[in-house]
Amino acid sequence: MSELPPELLRRQDESADELFYVQPRLLAHIDDDAIAALGGFLREVIPDNAEVLDLMSASVSHLPDDVRARCKRVAGLGMNKEEMAANQQLSEHVVHNLNCEPRVPYDDACFDVALCTVSVQYLLRPIDVFREVGRVLRAGGPFVVSFSNRCFPTKAIAAWLYSDDSGHAALVCAYFERSGCWRDITVSDLSPNPGRTDPLYAVWARGVDRRG
């Protein structure tokens, strides 16, 4: 299946992503209540001894300490080396621009879980990336895509800026469906205190067995 129409992938700032992300931003992009809600959700879906891919990683991965302690490995893939070096939850990291090269630089079926936290709105080739995540996950592994209503508007795609929260969820569901390697696609509203704190949503699914 093809990506979105070009007009929906346009951004206000079409300059190289490397220029935008050259300055490290050592901060969280959602508030404490939303972070706690996401942590509680991840506590339920990340198994013991998991190898985790933190896609579009930054200085914070939002894993509760007890969840991180029982993970075997957390690999970050992001745009800023200094941000990821400051992320104490990562066991390793690699600088990689998925908008230039959607192929994820890892072997087939080498992770148990994949996360993309408050960053999906910046992908220019989301269906290719979702297909790649399906490749590097072991069969049945969850890919959790979480988002709020915050973003860097100049770098978010038009399809995201034109949509509300329900539209964002539908868009991410379409990424899962069109990439063709997921089952049990689920939308979860994790918003801790609607109207008073940051909203938070997760669209997630499990990878299918692609062997043979």
Strand content: 15-25%
The shape is globular
Instruction: Kindly report the average pLDDT value.
Output: 93
CATH architectural name: 3-Layer(aba) Sandwich
Write the CATH homologous superfamily. Answer: Vaccinia Virus protein VP39
Rg computed from alpha carbons, rounded to a whole number of angstroms = 16 Å
The secondary structure category is alpha/beta
CATH topology: Rossmann fold
Q: In sequence order, what are the helices and strands, one letter per element?
A: HHEHEHEEHEHHEE
Widest sheet: strand order? 3-2-1-4-5-7-6
**Helix fraction?**
25-40%
How many β-strand runs?
7
Specify the biggest β-sheet: 7 strands, mixed
Instruction: List the uncertain runs.
Output: none
Overall number of structural domains? 1
Number of helices in the DSSP assignment: 7
State the name of the first-level CATH class: Alpha Beta
User: For the terminal residues, how far apart are their CA atoms?
Assistant: 21 Å
Descriptive account of the structure:
The chain has helices at residues 17-20, 32-45, 65-69, 81-86, 126-136, 158-161, 165-179, and strands spanning 51-57, 73-78, 92-95, 113-117, 142-147, 182-189, 201-207. By secondary structure, it is an alpha/beta fold. The chain has one domain (6-207): Rossmann fold. It has a seven-stranded mixed sheet with strand order 3-2-1-4-5-7-6, sandwiched between helices. The two termini are 21 Å apart. The model has no long low-confidence stretch (mean pLDDT 93).
